[in-house]
Structures are given as structure tokens and as C-alpha cells.
């Protein structure tokens, strides 16, 4: 772009609105007029608009539709669902209920006799099958509202919002790590499944900066590190991601995370007993999380030492989702 | 995706006696919540092409489109109760679609085995080729080549830039809707849209034409 524009530039907002709305829209006409008036020689603006026009012309690209077999199969399954859900004879209902009681007994006995792997696998699969589509709360990283009562700061390390969430520029070298966290001030019931999703960008590995995503059932944060006494943690340190269980045990091997401009999404899904932790579509943990059934709090934390600059790792988005 | 609301949706009210075909997507979903299968089949008619096309554009193989497409519409019916009126139905449905596509990508990494089954998707063989799509849009040979080049280049964009273009341009979703679907703030989505299109713009301005003679003749 001949005249570079900033991401929060009003021109950027106008252009991207126009680019989304497409040729023929009022936003498009306004933007074209503005580009022509302000940037008469900017060929790259013209190329940008041309690229958008070409996409408009190519909307049929990979356009597919459901064939007759697709619809038949889908509505066959829906019909089967409906039949299963209604018109059940009383005898069938009684038989099914009796069956459920029997199966429950067998599962109960099995749970006591079998090693933990059996039932856990099924529960984790259940957790995997859940779709977390409803936002419960999120942090607006780009335009944070310091007064948002749903999130609070903990620990001595100040965090700032600049191209994501990151530690403030260092005020002097420290030998030991100091921590700062943003934590939800409202706890969510431990009996409901929740997915905590955080988008993290690692520009470069750093031995002196640790970023953590955590779920805790005890929001009692220490004065120096902003660490609570009982939490499930995903962390990245020196380019390696690890999971730490409540009680401090590091689970499994470290996963190397390559630095880059593209953020990765860290997802901690928890139900009453089990958790899965994925980062960048790779699974790091699946098993009992060890948290209590009390209300749970969600947070992100940075730990920094030495003269570490604040450009190694940043957090791009934070949200808590429920099914 | 018809029946778009230019204005903010109304507050929940009792369902009005509107003919099904003229009911909004959101009202059809409320009827679905009450067990109206006919309302759901209308929603399926309105959304199946856009959901399946989105999946095909993002995933690139028809086998996955078929299985995930089935799963999307089956789950939307089974979990209709989780839809909250008057949320825009397209936002809710594309959140399900995107999540299932991401889950599928994760599973594929763990077990990259494809189940080849009889395909029940139409249109892929006719419209998958960028040059054929471009040929239907314009008579100008030069423009056809540019359009085909841009469409081809879409696949080489970083995933997040491609996604915002697919949702914002091809699916006509607003930044507010995309924000809700992806969990990414609008300002970031704007930046991704801008930089994605900028890359495509550079390709428009490039001199080489990666279109084969065979495609040109067709």
C-alpha cells in the first residue's frame, strides 16, 4: 500500500466495511469515492477493490448443494429421532426404564471394579462431542474496558493492552519471576461443561517469560506470582507448552510451539470431572482434572523475570463458552 | 439465506400466523423448537447450500463436506433448544458449522483415514474450477483470468484470513456476526479481511497467469 494505514484508522474501518459489503453497496460507493479523492495515485487501493470485485464475480466458486440423497438421509435420521422421542408404548417405556436401572447398576459396579481408563474414555468422548456455541463472557482485547466488572487483575506484574494483552514494559530487572493475571470475577458452577478459549501469539520463545491459561476453583491468588492454590494450567515457556494439574504435577511431555505471526487457540474444556486441553489443534491432555465441584474461575497469567521485553508472547482473545 | 433483517430483531413475542414460506429464519427456528419438522425443512432449504459451500471452501474435500454437513443439520435439529431467540439464526448455525469443521480437522490429524462413501452433494464437479466459474461471470478473457487467479490464490491464504473472507464475502455475514462466530474481535477481523484482500490484490497485479491452455479452451 503506497500510503500505509493503521489497523485502527477510520479509513481502514471504512474500507473493510466496503470490502465486506461488496460492490454496489452504499459502503462500497463511499469508500471508492474516498479512495479516489484522497489517494488518486494509490494503485494498490485499486488492486484491493479489484480483488474484492473478482471475489464477488466468483461467488459460485466451490458452490455445492445438497443432493436428493443428502436430504433423504438427513430427514430419515430426524424422523427416526422423532419416532424414538414420541409414541412409545407404555410397555416399552417401562422396559426401557428397567433397562436403564439395570445398566446403571452394571455401570456402577463396573466403575468400582474397572481401572480408571474405561469410564474416563467415554466421558472424554462425551466432552469432545459437546459443541460450545454460546458465549458466557469474553474480554475485549482491542478496546478493553478497565471498568468491566466481570474481570479483575491479580498480582504485581502490570499487564497492558497493546496489540493484545501483554506485560507492561519492564520497570527494572528482577531475579525471580513476578506474575500478573486477568481472572474472571464471577465463578461458573462446577457441574456445567464450559470451554475456555484463549488465542495466543508467540513471536519468539523466551526463557524469561511464561504465559499461562488456567481454570481454578480457589480464586486466592498469591501476592508475588498471582498463582492460586488449586488450578489446572496450560502454559508456554521457552517455546514449549505443558499442562500442570492441580497439586503441581506436570502432565505428559512438552509440546514444541513454533513462533509465528499466526495465533494458536488454547482450549480448556471442563465438565464436572474431566478436562481436555488442546492447543493449535493438538491435544495435550485428556483426563480427570482434579478440580472440585465448586464454582470455577477462568484466567490468563504472565510471569516475567530479568529484563525480558514484552514482545515475546501476547494474548489476542479470551472467551468462555457453554454448549 | 433469505429473510434478512435490516433492523434489529424484535423482542420475543408469540408466534404469529405467518405462512411458513414468508416467516423469518428466526421464527422458523422457534417453530422448530416446538417440534415443527416442516419449519426445519424450510430452514434446511434456505441454508443447506451456504453451509455446504462454506464447508467445501474451507475443507476442500467433498467427503468431509457430506459427513460434517449431515452432522451440522442433525445437531441443529437435536439441539434446537439451545438457540436463543432473537439471535440471528445464521450466526448460531455457522458457529455450529465452524466448530464441527475445527473438530473434524483435529480428528483428521489424529486419524487421517477417509471414509469413502457414496456422495450426496451436487455441484462440486461443475463449480469447483476457478476458470469455469470466471467464465460464467464475464465475457472478457482478461477478466476471466484475473478472477480465476484470485480464486485460486484464496486457497493459499493463511487460514484465518481465508476464513474471514469466506464468512464475510461469500456468506455475507457482518463483522458483528463473525465476531460472535469466531470469538475474534471485529477490529482483528477487519485487519484480516484487509490483509487477505491485499494479498489477493497483489496477485491481481501479478504478471504471470497460472491458467493452463486446457482450462482456457474449456
Describe what this molecule looks like in 3D.
The complex is a heterodimer of chains A (323) and B (218). Chain A is 29% helix and 33% strand. Chain A is α+β, with helices and mostly antiparallel strands and 323 residues long. In chain A, a hairpin with a 3-residue loop joins strand 4 (159-161) and strand 5. In chain A, helix 1 crosses helix 2. The model of chain A has no long low-confidence stretch (mean pLDDT 82). Chain B is mainly alpha-helical and 218 residues long. Chain B contains eleven helices and one strand, in the order ααααβααααααα. Chain B has helices at 25-33, 37-59, 62-78, 89-110, 124-127, 130-137, 141-154, 159-170, 175-182, 186-205, 213-217; one strand at 121-122. In chain B, helix 2 packs across helix 4 (89-110) and helix 7 (141-154) crosses helix 10. Chain B is globular, with a radius of gyration of 19 Å. The interface between A and B is large, with 69 and 84 residues. Strand 1 of chain A pairs antiparallel with strand 1 (121-122) of chain B, so a sheet runs across the interface.
Kindly name the structural category of chain A.
alpha+beta
Instruction: Give the strand order of the largest sheet of chain A, numbering strands 1, 2, ... along the chain.
Output: 3-6-15-8-9-10-11
Q: Beta-strand level of the residues of chain A, as a percent range?
A: 25-35%
The proportion of residues in beta strands of chain B is under 5%
Largest interface pair: A-B, 69 and 84 residues
Q: What is the overall silhouette of chain B?
A: globular
**What is the ordering of alpha helices and beta strands of chain A?**
HHHEHHHEEEEEEEEEEEEEEE
Q: Could you tell me the radius of gyration of chain B in angstroms?
A: 19 Å
Number of strands of chain A: 16
Count helical runs of chain B: 11
The class by helix and strand makeup of chain B works out as mainly alpha
The biggest sheet of chain B, with number of strands, parallel, antiparallel or mixed sense and barrel status, is: none
Main β-sheet description of chain A: 7 strands, antiparallel
So what's the oligomer here?
Answer: heterodimer
Amino acid at each position: 500500500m503506497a500510503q500505509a494505514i493503521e489497523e485502527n484508522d477510520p479509513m481502514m474501518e471504512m474500507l473493510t466495511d466496503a470490502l465486506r459489503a461488496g460492490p454496489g453497496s452504499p459502503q462500497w460507493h463511499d469508500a471508492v469515492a474516498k479512495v479516489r479523492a484522497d489517494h488518486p495515485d494509490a494503485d494498490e487501493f485499486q488492486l484491493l477493490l479489484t480483488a474484492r470485485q473478482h471475489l464477488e464475480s466468483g461467488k459460485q466458486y466451490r458452490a455445492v448443494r445438497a443432493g436428493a440423497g443428502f436430504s433423504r438421509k438427513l430427514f430419515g435420521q430426524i424422523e427416526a429421532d422423532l419416532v424414538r422421542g414420541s409414541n412409545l408404548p407404555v410397555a416399552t417405556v417401562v422396559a426401557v426404564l428397567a433397562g436403564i436401572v439395570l445398566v446403571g447398576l452394571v455401570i456402577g459396579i463396573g466403575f468400582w471394579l474397572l481401572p480408571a481408563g474405561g469410564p474416563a474414555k467415554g466421558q472424554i468422548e462425551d466432552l469432545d462431542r459437546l459443541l460450545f456455541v454460546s458465549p458466557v463472557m469474553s474480554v475485549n482485547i482491542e478496546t478493553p474496558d478497565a471498568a468491566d466488572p466481570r474481570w479483575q487483575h491479580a498480582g504485581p506484574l502490570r499487564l497492558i493492552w497493546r496489540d493484545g494483552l501483554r506485560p507492561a514494559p519492564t520497570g527494572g530487572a528482577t531475579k525471580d519471576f513476578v506474575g500478573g493475571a486477568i481472572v474472571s470475577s464471577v465463578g461458573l458452577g462446577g457441574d456445567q461443561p464450559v470451554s475456555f478459549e484463549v488465542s495466543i501469539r508467540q513471536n519468539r520463545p523466551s526463557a524469561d517469560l511464561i504465559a499461562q491459561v488456567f481454570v481454578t476453583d480457589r480464586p486466592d491468588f498469591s501476592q508475588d506470582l498471582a498463582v492460586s492454590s488449586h488450578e489446572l494450567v496450560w502454559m508456554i515457556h521457552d517455546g514449549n507448552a505443558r499442562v500442570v494439574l492441580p497439586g503441581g504435577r506436570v502432565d505428559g511431555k512438552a509440546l514444541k510451539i513454533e513462533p509465528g505471526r499466526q495465533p494458536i487457540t488454547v482450549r480448556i474444556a471442563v465438565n464436572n470431572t474431566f478436562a481436555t486441553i488442546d492447543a493449535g489443534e493438538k491435544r495435550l491432555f485428556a483426563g480427570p482434572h482434579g478440580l472440585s465441584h465448586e464454582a470455577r474461575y477462568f484466567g490468563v497469567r504472565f510471569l516475567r523475570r530479568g529484563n525480558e521485553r514484552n514482545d515475546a508472547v501476547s494474548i489476542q482473545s479470551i472467551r468462555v463458552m457453554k454448549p | 439465506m433469505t429473510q434478512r433483517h435490516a433492523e434489529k430483531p424484535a423482542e420475543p413475542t408469540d408466534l404469529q400466523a405467518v405462512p411458513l414460506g414468508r416467516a423469518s429464519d428466526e421464527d422458523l427456528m422457534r417453530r422448530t423448537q416446538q417440534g415443527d419438522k416442516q419449519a426445519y425443512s424450510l430452514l434446511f432449504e434456505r441454508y443447506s447450500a451456504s453451509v455446504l459451500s462454506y464447508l467445501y471452501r474451507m475443507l476442500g474435500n467433498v467427503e468431509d463436506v457430506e459427513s460434517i454437513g449431515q452432522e451440522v443439520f442433525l445437531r441443529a435439529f437435536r439441539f434446537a433448544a439451545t438457540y436463543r431467540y432473537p439471535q440471528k439464526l445464521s450466526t448460531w448455525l455457522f458457529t455450529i458449522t465452524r466448530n464441527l469443521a475445527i473438530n473434524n480437522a483435529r480428528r483428521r490429524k489424529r486419524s487421517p483415514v477417509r471414509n469413502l462413501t457414496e456422495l450426496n452433494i451436487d455441484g462440486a464437479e461443475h463449480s469447483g474450477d476457478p476458470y469455469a466459474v470466471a467464465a460464467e461471470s464475464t465475457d472478457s478473457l482478461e477478466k476471466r483470468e484475473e478472477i480465476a487467479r484470485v480464486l485460486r490464490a484464496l486457497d493459499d491464504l493463511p487460514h484465518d484470513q481465508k476464513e474471514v473472507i469466506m464468512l464475510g464475502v461469500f456468506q455475507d455475514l457482518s463483522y458483528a456476526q463473525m465476531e460472535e462466530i469466531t470469538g475474534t474481535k471485529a477490529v482483528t477481523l477487519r485487519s484480516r479481511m484487509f490483509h487477505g484482500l491485499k494479498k489477493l490484490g497483489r496477485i491481481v497485479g501479478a504478471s504471470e497467469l497460472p491458467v493452463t491452455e486446457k482450462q482456457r479452451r474449456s
